[in-house]
Amino acid sequence: MAYFDNNATTPLAGTVFEAFQTALEKGWANPSSPYRQAARVRAEISRARDQLAAAFGVNASHLTFVSGATESNNAVFSYFAHKSSNDSRVLISSIEHPSVSAPAKWYFPDRVDLLETDGKGIVSLEALESFLQSENKTILVSIMAASNETGVLQPWQEAAKLCRAHGVHFHCDSSQWIGKLPHDDFSLCSSFVCSGHKFGAPKGIGLLVGEDAMPFFHGGGQEEGRRGGTESYPSIEAMGCAMKGVEGTLAQLPQRAHWRDSFETALKSVLPQVRILGCESPRLWNTSCFIAPQFENLRWVGKLDKLGFEISTGSACSTAKDELTPSASAFSLTSEETRRILRVSSYFEQDQKDWQSLADAFQSAFDELSEEASASPVISL
Ligand code: PLP
């Protein structure tokens, strides 16, 4: 099978499985226990924390190990809801992942402002600046780094600087950026997140990185009292190993973006009416999100699956849900168009040949779907 759904999750990378297994075997003791075996696990966690902090250029005490980006995003909104007054507000972009937009609405009911995107799927820095200058009670701004659906990159560095200049906490959902693009600038953000399974680590491990100590799980006192609960040392070790692997690969990016672009050119010759979302904007090198001119997305997914290619419909958490996804709203899609959205996303395993084969598979899937449609009296989408 050729796997093209890496924005949903990635398989364990290279040596990660070995690192994970060794840590499971040798580091199973509870790191909070009082004997030497436990102290060794504590020391390994501390080493992994230092290594990850160095990768992001931040202080190790700013890192909290969590289960993933959803937990981190929830933790930030929950923390600010508890520490702020009842009339304080939050500003989020209109294309945030549900793990940001849902806690924003949950913890700040009727007190969420939306920063809209332009026709290219990018938030407006002018709109952000004038919002920050206006009289309002905004305590937290949250903007994603890269869209999980279209791959469109947001100007989060500039947004972070603007918020800092106005003394407002800037949180960045950087789940899709980290592991795909250089991550040196994230220290500009007041807080950001990291989801291990997006870059070759197991599911269930990630980071919340923040200048403020934001305690959110109480009881147990782990992570300096910020997140109670026994640490999963094997997962932490695996994430550190995956991050090391990523750091060696970030030089190959221009070539990889070229493979994706060639796929899109080939796709346009199969489907001349295809609309590629975000293609005029800076995008993640691995992502192509488009509206097929014909046939519902799940029919394409099924056909391609049988042909040996795993692709997705917009985003994993929207599959089979009949609602507009954030990017569908950003690009003013109708709900009918939304049912034709497809997303393909590679990672470091996929090479130029895989992208070419994927384009060929689209041709075969199109031929089969067209044949079925002409044999059926029912008009298909
Ligand atoms: N934010 C974005 C942009 C994502 O793409 C995802 C996962 O798809 C998440 C948050 C949630 O990540 P996790 O699975 O680590 O909770």
Walkthrough of the structure:
By secondary structure, this protein is of the alpha/beta class. It has two domains: 2-9 and 250-375, Alpha-Beta Complex (Aspartate Aminotransferase, domain 1), CATH 3.90.1150.10; 14-247, 3-Layer(aba) Sandwich (Aspartate Aminotransferase, domain 2). The chain contains twelve helices and twelve strands. The strands form three sheets. It has a seven-stranded mixed beta sheet, with helices on both faces. Strands 9-10-12 form a three-stranded antiparallel beta sheet. Helix 8 runs parallel beside helix 12 and helix 9 packs across helix 12 (352-375). The mean pLDDT is 94. The chain binds pyridoxal-5'-phosphate (PLP). The site of pyridoxal-5'-phosphate (PLP) has 13 residues, from helix 3.
Give the topology string: H per helix, E per strand: EHHEHEHEHEHEEEHHEEHEHHEH
Q: What would the CATH topology of the largest domain be?
A: Aspartate Aminotransferase, domain 2
Distance between the termini: 27 Å
Number of strands: 12
List keywords for this structure.
13% strand; 40% helix; Aspartate Aminotransferase, domain 2; globular; Aspartate Aminotransferase, domain 1; alpha/beta; 381 residues; binds pyridoxal-5'-phosphate; 12 strands
In short:
With 381 residues, the chain is α/β, with parallel strands linked by helices. 40% of the residues lie in helices and 13% in strands. The protein starts with a strand and ends in a 6-residue tail after the last helix.
